[in-house]
Amino acid sequence: MAFNELFAGEIATELLRQLHDISRKSCFCKSSADSLITRIKELLPIVEELKYSGVELPAFRQSQINRFSETLRGGLELAHKVLDSGRWNVYKNLQLVRKMEKLEKQVESFIRGPMQAHLLADVHHMRFETMERFNRLEERLDSMNAGPGTSGRQGIEAEEDSNLGIFGGIGLEIGKNKVTKMLIGRDDLSVVGIWGIGGSGKTTLAKEISRDNQVRSYFNNRILFLTVSQSPDLEQLRANIWGFITGSEDMSHTTNIFVPQGKSQFEWGCGPRTLVVLDDVWSASVLEQLIFKVPTYKTLVISRCKFPKRVVNEVYEVELLREDESMSLFCHSAFGQKSIPPTGNATLVKQIVNECKGLPLALKVIGASLQDQPEMYWINARKRLSRGEPICESHENKLLDRMETSVECLKKKVKECFLDLGSFPEDKKIPLDVLVNTWVEIHNIDEEEAFAILMELSEKNLLTLVKDARAGDAFCSYYEISVTQHDVLRDLAIHLSNQGEVNDRKRLLMPRRDTELPREWEKNTDQPFNARIVSVHTGEMREMDWFHMEFPKAEVLILNFSADEYFLPPFIDNMPKLRALIVINHGATEATLQNFSVFTNLANLRSLWLEKVTVPQLSSTTVPLRNLRKLSMVLCKVSNSLDPSVLDLPQIFPRLLELVIDHCDDLVKLPSSICKVNSLQSMSITNCHRFHELPADLGMLKKLQILRLYACPELKTLPPSIGEVVGLKYLDISQCVNLKCLPREIGKLRSLEKIDMRDCLQIVSLPTPAVLSNLKSLGRVICDEEVFGQWRNLEKMVPDLHVQVAEKWYSLDWLNG
Question: Which of 87-101, 453-467, 502-516 has the highest mean pLDDT?
């Protein structure tokens, strides 16, 4: 029996008790509460049947149980809010009523669907789930013809399952029990550690402990999971932790929060128990700055480094996998089952498993690399593994040598794309849009081929695809996905890229954030650097911090930094072939960029990504970027740059195809000159909460195929001229909660293929069927139940139309919004 089956049952029982209280006390939510009571009573016998069946659920079905447990947990939190809400707070109560109704639909959908299926499904569902996962992603590729947008990754992020550590079984349970006893059974331990080499399953174990019901109950669900990394932003981390401890989470996004020192922390008193998990800690000096001396606060530290007892009171050392566990994990990756198939060469498999030395990451990645390969390929892999000579005697380098085997089998272009992943910072999500653009520009491939390579690397466990909160249904496009990579795999990419003389490398990379450029670079500035990708990761950079460098072949420049001000590198002037520029600030506030004059010589620049910076003012004197095809501005200050009185966009961006503006909270409206950029094919204005007006002349954009206006709550109308955007194929107005209606002119969009209008709360009626029947190309509509029937009636007149109600997945992520 899996843990979460029991957990779901216990949560359901507690939720049932809360709902009875609501039914008695809250007139606003009584109807939904009574209905939920009926549903939960139906649920409990099914959970009990699962609990005592003795069947070990496959991963896919177990993950559904996990998600439903989180759904019930969210229901409990909602029930508490309902019970605590004052009866005279009408606005808040109406909001809670709507959430209760949605919770009811979520529970009912799960009971009527997946829960019953759990009782009938067999072990083959594990393989089916894997196929289904990639089918969904490939389905998203279909919408890529409409052009990608930007990821909402600064919104609610879905936590990815590592699945790289211990493969269930005894090892995980032993470690989990030992660490749990240290955390909740020992009052004398305020800092507990998990230690192990890279790829040994430390983070997986820590996440399991964080999700454990007993641990969550002990800490009253007050558990914060943070990744520190080798180049941490200490001020931001300290602010996050102190804000969490004191209950000031709303202030934790800024470094301006007051953090007391020394004894003042202890004097904070005995608040609720709190656990902070610090993953990927590399330095004792860093760790000491992240530990607070509050009586009811504990820290769980995950690291490859062993720290003195004065810092970490007690440590659990992660054990490598036993022989049987190693075999199960390897076979799962190589064959899709837990044992060697009858047709497999058992001796050969055992020899390769032995060479992996019980390291979960090596077992998983090497197993995946050998999947469906002929036996001679396996024999060759065994030979390469057995003669791997470590650079030094550390396990880390031995692991890199063994992991190299899994990369050698990749096709040349796929291998090059894998090595490119080392260009991005450790422990940061990579927006898929950024990665795809990099591959397209550097390897001369199209987006479809780039996406296929992404899927191949994912299937071989060389990267992880992570969906954001909105990507929880079958209709989201691939722009809502980001990429993460295990730090050992990133180390491998950097290790392979850094071979050879520094001036001759294809990629010039900084492995981690530093205060200055590497001295190795400075020592070799007398010769040009032949790198095609240059990646820099620093703090604040001033003009004097840069030195002269020449990059005659550079096509991609990635600038990562954490600062309030940043002087763009002068060597951009010496990058005549630069095609993609990515500027990402990881600091707490938008950075001011200086030295924008370097754009003068970027005649070949095709893609520009700006994140968390103040975009300089664009005017008639701005040097045109004549070949720029894609401009993305994420979390930026853009009001000055888009001043309509001085801005002539078609002059500055004469060939722009895609414009992305995401999470830019000072954007109020677009300059009217945007309508004269005749080349524009995709425009995404998303998560811009003050944006309230589209240009009246929108109809001039005859080539526009995609218009995304997701989560713009102040937008109240669409201009009538939208009917003149004759090439429009995809319209996304989801979560535009104040949008009043669809204009009659929408019936003129004969090329329109898809409309996403979920959570458009004000739209309760549509244009007449006679108007909408002209949408002959319309194939899919995603909407709320309020207008579902009106769209459904249109299916008779538009034969290929499929109308889908938005609630598709069993998640309560919206409760956290």
Answer: 502-516
CA distance linking residue 690 with residue 666, whole number of Å: 6
The CA distance from 422 to 232, in Å, is 18
242-261 residue pLDDT tens: 888 877 655 545 545 555 55
End-to-end CA distance of the chain: 33
What confidence tens digit (pLDDT) does each residue in 764-773 have?
899 999 999 9
Q: How many CA atoms lie within 13 A of 24 on its CB side?
A: 5
- List, for residues 591-649, the tens digit of each pLDDT value: 999 998 888 888 899 999 999 999 887 765 567 788 999 999 999 998 877 766 657 78
In this predicted structure, the answer to whether residue 542 has a pLDDT above a threshold of 80 is: yes
* H or E stretch at 525: none
Write down the pLDDT at residue 747.
93
CB-side exposure of 686: number of CA atoms within 13 Å? Answer: 27
For 616-667, what is the HEC assignment?
CCCCCCCCCCCCCCEEEEECCECCCCCCCCCCCHHHHCCCCCEEEEECCCCC
- Token output for 253: 């996004």
For residue 289, give the nearest of 265, 313, 273 by alpha carbon: 265
Question: Do residues 290 and 233 lie in contact, with contact meaning Cβ atoms separated by under 8 Å?
Answer: no
The amino acid sitting at 392 is C
Q: In Å, what is the CA distance from 705 to each residue of 87, 419, 448, 753? A: 48, 34, 18, 10
DSSP H or E run through 566: strand 565-567
Ramachandran assignment for 205, one of left (phi > 0), alpha (psi -120 to 50 degrees), beta (any other): alpha
CB 108 within 8 Å of CB 47:
no
- DSSP β-bridge partners for residue 276: 224, 299
- Confidence category of residue 57, pLDDT binned at 50, 70, 90: low
Strand order in the sheet with 591-594: 565-567, 591-594, 613-614
Query: What is the pLDDT of the chain when averaged over all its residues?
Result: 77
Helix, strand, or coil (residue 561)? strand
SS3 227: strand
Whether 53 has a pLDDT exceeding 50, the answer reads no
**CA–CA distances in Å: residue 499 to residues 495, 504, 507, 535:** 7, 9, 10, 16
Q: b vs e for 110-130, b when ≥16 Cβ sit within 10 Å of the residue's Cβ?
A: bbeebbeebeebeeebbeebe
Overall residue count recorded for the chain in this entry:
817
Report whether 509 contacts 422 (CB < 8 A). Answer: yes
